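Honest question from a wet-lab person: if I give you the sequences of every part of a complex, can you actually get the arrangement of the whole thing, not just the pieces? Trying it with mine:
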Amino acid sequence: MSIDITGVTKTYGDFVALDDVSLTIPTGQLTALLGPSGGGKSTLLRVIAGLETADTGEVTIEGVNATKLPPQKRNVGFVFQHYAVFKHMTVAKNVAFGMEIRKRPKDEIAARVDELLKLVHLSQFSHRLPSQLSGGQRQRMALARALAVEPTVLLLDEPFGALDAKVRKELRDWLRRLHDEVHVTTVFVTHDQEEAMEVADEIVVINEGRVEQVGSPDELYDEPANDFVMGFLGETTSLGGVLLRPHDVHLSLTPQEAGAAEGSISRVLRVGFEVRITVLTDDGDEVNVLLTRTHARQLGLEPGVRVWVSAASGATTVPKMAAAAG
Amino acid sequence: MSAALSGATLDVGRPVPDDGGRPRRARRTKPRNTLTPGAGLGLGIAMLWFSLLVLVPLSAIVASAAAGGWANYVNVLTDPQTWNALKLTVSQAALVTVINVVMGTIIAWVLVRDRFPGKAIMNVIIDIPFALPTVVAGLVLLALYGPNSPIGVHWAFTQKSVALALAFVTLPFVVRAVQPVLEELDADVEEAAASLGARRSTIFRRIILPSLVPAITAGAALSFARAISEYGSLVLLSGNRPNETEVASVRMLSFIENGSYASAAAVASIMLAVALFVIVVLDIVQRRVSRRG
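Yes, you can. This is the full assembly:
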């Protein structure tokens, strides 16, 4: 059930946007398609919506084979990065559009518009034109417009990408709460791993047209399938042939653990409560270590001090590949 | 002048702070004089140039027409030949403007949305009817639709020829007005409408057309204004037959040739009123339609 994508390939000339992608997106959940720009995640979303047609492969939405259906017949709600507002219509008219197309009775439309505008906190703006709203308000209107047709799935393409950092964070929390209320199967595209980890129930990491890993935020963070996923979800540093997080490096002034690498501190950078330390090991590795301010002060760390570094017990590590991690 | 003054009014389109509190109403203040010395000089130069070129000559026409009093107007209008010329001019210009609104929008659509061989050439050729000296336009049309028509269509010296010539010279106006607006339309707006269930025809009628209406009416106003003032291409093609194919500008010329300046000025001021009326009506139509959605 839910959304099933099987063997979808899409090319633009020589460029392979999607390379034999197969994926199942569970019903009622909030799923993030995460990956770098140009990795194919937006194309996949547009294929699900029917705004692009796949060269090969099938898309099934809630058991209905949608591969050949035009976007009008798929009953999906789509929210665009740049809002795609109907400029000449008021906020209420924008939201009502899909229901008017479906020829619902007037009073039903009015009631539903009212309810949706309340949901997105835009009730008092119903008679405004979109040009009189801020970016965050326009995107909420676009969301209400997409929800108005009671879509089987809600698709959001970088929905907060055009907003400034503060509004983006607010809307992110708000989307999460909205989803907890509405429970519609939601897929959103983002290149911001923090956004994906914070909002999504499940994350699909996509790179170069392929699915790298599917899992919950914790699974992805704790058990990355490869160095790409590891690198994309957060900072990494390499130590003795493995990749690990800088805060997972154990640093001591005496050799405490077998296999710890000896080296000297080359740089100490303090940012607020964090201290970022660069250690040059005698084996030639440059290891980044993240400590709290208190911990660093206890150890009396400064450039030139001899230290031993090793992976802390329980650290997530991934073998380092020849290719550099993204 | 209005552009200089509108700086004093509040920008109504400004985004409003998020939620909370009552919606702030944009106040419309009375235009104040906010001109700096530099802007004052600019406004002065603009107004002087505009007056010399447009306001003074137009006032002169109205004044010289009015010098004859109402009797002059009544005389001119009750002369059947003049009345027929005015009627022909306005009706044919209106007809051609309606044709241009439809055809011009279609041509602009094809030029922006479709890909076909020869598109670039067509894009350039569109302007030729406008760039050509109008007498040459008349010649061209006479060669094709005149007595020696190679395709057997003998429209010259009939009322059809008037519409034909007007359509020829006013072709680019709507096309050129609509084209850039159509190019600027966001594809995702149409995609949003499609995913909400709207068919192509509905998307065109409810999403695209309202965005084009300001451009279409602007093109229509230009096209109408150009059509009622057309002279060159009609001289050859229409034959200037009184009561049949004689247009207002030709009628005015014959008044002037007979030394009847007051009558010419009366016809001119009537045409001026018609042009003004049509431009205002189109502006109102544009405001209505682009709001409706």
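Two things worth pointing out. Residues 275 and 291 of chain A are 5 Å apart (CA to CA). The first helix of chain A runs from residue 41 to 49.
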